[in-house]
Formate dehydrogenase subunit alpha
Amino acid sequence: MANADCIIIQGSNMAECHPVGYQWVAEAKARGAKVIHIDPRFTRTSAVSDKHIPIRAGSDVVLLGALINYVITNDLWFKEYVGAYTNAATLVHDDYRDAEDLGGLFSGFDPEKGAYDSSSWSYAEEEGGTIGEPSGPEHGADAGARAAGDLFGSGGPALEHAEVQRDDTLQDPRTVFQIVKRHYARYTPEMVENMCGIKAADFEYLARAITENSGRERTTCFAYAVGWTQHSLGAQFIRAAAILQLLLGNVGRPGSGIMALRGHASIQGSTDIPTLFNLLPGYLPMPSAGRHDTLQEYLDANASKQQKGFWADADAYTISLLKAWWGDAATAENNWAFDYLPRLTGAHGTYETVMSMLRDEVEGYFLLGQNPAVGSAHGRMQRLGMSHLKWLVVRDLNMIESATWWKDGPEIESGELRTEDIETEVFFLPAATHVEKAGSFTQTQRLLQWRHQAVAPPGECQSELQFFYELGQRIRAKLAGSDDDRDRPLLDLTWDYPTDEHGDPDPEAVLAEINGRHLDGPDAGKPLSTYTEMRADGSTSGGCWIYTGVYADGVNHAANRKPGREQGPAAPEWGWAWPANRRILYNRASADPSGKPWSERKKYIWWDEEQRRWVGDDVPDFPVDLAPGSKPDPALGGPAALSGDDPFIMQADGKGWLFAPKGLVDGPLPTHYEAQESPVANGLYPQQQSPARLVFPRKDNLSAPSAGTRGADVYPFVFTTYRLTEHHTAGGMSRWLPYLSELQPEMFCEVSPELAAERGLEPYGWATIISPRSAIEAKVLVTDRMRPLAVGGHTVHQIGLPYHWGVGNNAVVSGDAANDLLGVTLDPNVQIQESKVASCDIRPGRRPRGEELLALVAEYQARAGVTIETGNRAITDPEAEGIAPGPSGDASAGDGPQT
C-alpha cells in the first residue's frame, strides 16, 4: 500500500480499526498518493483522507459496477494487460443468459431448489463443447446446506484445460469483455446517485482519481474489511472490485491489488490452517459425504491434472497433509488414511450449528476466543441455543457473556429463561494472553511473524497449544487399547511433540511439522524448502502446503527481523510470507507479456535475458525459468502447461477472471441486489434480493418487509454495525480494562441531526432501537458524521451502532448488544452473516424491561404484518421475471418457493 498512487478505502474504517497497518497509507499519502474513504459514516479515516464519500450501506456493487462501466465506455482500460492476462477474449457458452436479460437472474436458476446450475456460464471449447461443467450434486443441494467453500479450495474450481474459443479483437458478443460491458451498461452515474446517494460530482471525482492513477506508470489499491464481507452478497462486492482492478491493470503490481484488512493479529492465519468448517489447511476443501467417498473422487473433484497451474498438484498437498497428521499409519494401501477425515453432510457453520442446538442435535460446544452471546448475529438465538446444550466449554481471558448468560443474560431478565431450568453445564477455562505464549501469527499481508513468550501465564491459564495437546493426550489415553475402527483416527495421530521442563509442547516443533519434511531418500528428515518439493507418493509430509518454506533448512524464518533499511524494497528478511516468501501475489503481471516492466517507476519483477530467468525485488510468483512467449503443449497440464503470459498461476486457465465460469453459486458477475432487509427498492432489477442468498425462515428469525411491500414503513430506517478503536470485537479484551472502558463507557447510537429532530431524540439521552428480532437501548450521539442520503426520491436515514457491548455483571462496563437486533441471512458462497445493513425503527427513551420488552417487539411485528415467509421468497416477482430453461431444457418459470 505504501507504493500506491491512489488508495480507495471502502468497507473499512482503517485508521480506527487497523491503526498499525494504516501507517502504510499515511506513508503513501506523504509520497503524494490520494486517499479516498467511501463509508456510510464520516470517521477518523475520513478525517485523514483527501475525500469522504458517503454511501448507502449495501449499495456498493452499484458504485463499483458504475466504475467498471466508466472505465470501459471512456476507453480507459489497460488494453495490453487485459488482453494478455485476463479471460476478456474467451467466449462463453451460447446458452448463457445474463441478469440483464432475465430481470436480475442468470441462466440456470432453479426456483424449487433456490440454486443455480452454472453449466451455461462455462467457456466454449473449440469443438463446441464446454469447459467447466458441474462435477457434483452441489447445484441441487438444499438451500440450507450450500456453501461454495466446501466445494473448491484456493485454486478455485477444477477446469479441464481445453482449447477454448477466443476472439482477441474482443468484438464477438460472446466474449467475456462484451458480456461484462453489456452487464454494467446500466450502472451509470445517475444510477449511483439514485441508488447509493452519491452525487454525480463525487462519482466523477472518484472515477477520475482511480483512472488517472492506474496504467503503466501508476497504480491504485483498494482496501476493505467486514464492511464488504458481512453482506448476503459480500463475496460479489469483492469480485466487483477485482474486475475493476483487472481492467485497470492493478493486480500483481506494486501499490495495487485489493487488500483484505484483518481485524486481529492472526485472522489470516486462522483461515490458512484453518478454523473454518469447510476447509483443510492450505485452502484444500473438506471432503463431502456422497461426493468424495474415495481419495480419487476427492482429488478428481479438487483439481484436474490437465488444468494449468500449481493447483493441479493438489494431490501432493493433500497426501503430504495426511502424512503429517497420521505418519506411518497413512499408507498407499489405505489411501493415505483419507477415510480418517470426517465428511461434510452440508453446511456446518456457526449459524447452522446454533439452529441444530435449538433442535437438541448438539450436546457440547467449545468457545475459543469467541463470544457469540455478544459478537455473533442474532444474540438471542445464540444464547437460547446454548441453553439446549449438555455442556459448554469457554476458554477466554475473562468471564465473558457467553460464560454467564445462564445467570445474567437478557433472557433471564425477560423471563424467557430461568437459571434453575437450564441444564447446560458450563466449564470456564482461563486462557493465556498473547504475551504469555510463543508461536506464529499470520497477518493481513500473509506474513508469518514469530511471537516470543514474554512472561509465564498466571495460575491455571494455558495457551491453546498446551490445552489441545493435553486434551489430545487424555483422549488418547482413554481410548488406548480400543479395537473400535472409529477410534483409529485419534489413536493413529502423530502426537509426539517435544515438551519443555514444564511439560509444555514446543511451538517450533509444530511449525516444523506444518512446514513439512522429506520422509524418504537421501534427504529423509530434512525440512522441505518449498511446496514444489511435495510429492503425492507419500515421500513427503507437510501440515499446510502454503506455509512450506517457513522452516526451510531448519530455521524459523517467521522470526526473521532484519530492519527494512538494511534490505531491498520488498523486505524479504522480515518475517516470512506465504507462499514461498512472495510479498506480492501474481507478480509476473508486474511485467508486460515480453517480460519487460510496464514502466521503470513500477518495476518489480522482470525477465533477464542473459540469465534466462525471472529476477527482481521479490520472489517471482511464476516458474522462474519460463520465458515470455513460451507456448507449451496445453495437454501437459499443471505448471508445465503455463504459457509465458499466464501470471495467475493458481487459476485453471492462468488468467485473471473478469467473468467466473464456475465457482460462485450466486452468479458469474457481481450484480446489485438489495439486502435481506431494505427500505429501498432495487432500481436495477425487479428481483429485490439475491435469489441465491441463504435464508432461514423461522419464527425467531423474522425479517422486516422490503420496500414496496406492506409494513415496510414500520421499520423505516437502516442500521449498520461497526467497531471502535477503544474496544476490541465483543469486548472480552477491552471492557474488562478500566482505562479503555473509561474512554468508551456506554453503548451509543450515532444519528444525524435531521433524524434526531424527526424522532425527538435528545443528545446524550436514551433511544430504543427496534428490529423484528429484538429491541435495545443506547445513548444518543447526534452528529453530522451521519448524513441523510437522497435515494430513489426519498430520504434514507442510517443509524450507526458499535457492537462491543453485552449484558453481564463481570465486565467494567456493559450495555445492550447491537447484534441482538440482527437476523440470520448468509452469503451463499462463504456463509458469512449480513450484519452491515438491516432495517429498524428508533424512538426516544429507554427500552422496556421483562415481558414488556417482548411485547414491544411483538407489537412491531404485528403492525408490520411480518410472518415466517416475509422476505424469504427466492424470486421476488416470478411473473415479472422470465427464467431461462436450464441445460436440460426444463423451463424453470413459475412461483418461487418460500425458501
